[in-house]
């Protein structure tokens, strides 16, 4: 299963997590960001996804995605297309779609809009379903940046 990266902005939140690092024995590490529960998932505050993020923190984020299902990272305007894709690779191989819009900042970022001049329209089987859940092997994760 791949990871579908889309141009929107957002995704990906509470407490201390026990992790095992490749370079250390098992140890408790304090979460360097805050999780705030929202109606669906958690909002993540206090982390800049464009920064150099350690493997231990990436492991925490992945664990939080599994636990909370949806994490929303607000105020990530500084994230470049390459950094957006790097975050996607934390969860697996990026899977490109056959859609390619001239305004997409990278071939592997699926730009979606309700305006043809801004992005791909009428995508998915129902004209709006872009998470790949209609596929035989759906995407393992979706990352949105709006």
**Total strands:** 8
Q: Name the shape in a single word.
A: globular
Strand content: 15-25%
**What is the alpha-carbon Rg in Å?**
16 Å
Mean pLDDT: 77
Share of helical residues: 10-25%
Name the quaternary structure: single chain
Lateral arrangement of strands in the main beta sheet: 7-1-8
The largest pleated sheet is described as:
3 strands, parallel
> What would you call the structural class?
alpha/beta
Describe this structure in words.
The structure is a single chain. The protein has 2 helices and 8 strands; from the N terminus they run E-E-E-E-E-H-E-H-E-E. With 146 residues, it is α/β, with parallel strands linked by helices. The strands form 3 sheets. A 3-stranded parallel sheet has the order 7-1-8, covered by helices on one side. The protein has a 3-stranded mixed sheet with strand order 4-5-6. The protein has a two-stranded antiparallel ribbon with strand order 2-3.
How would you concisely characterize the structure shown here?
The chain is α/β, with parallel strands linked by helices and 146 residues long. The chain has two helices and eight strands; from the N terminus they run E-E-E-E-E-H-E-H-E-E. A three-stranded parallel sheet has the order 7-1-8, covered by helices on one side.
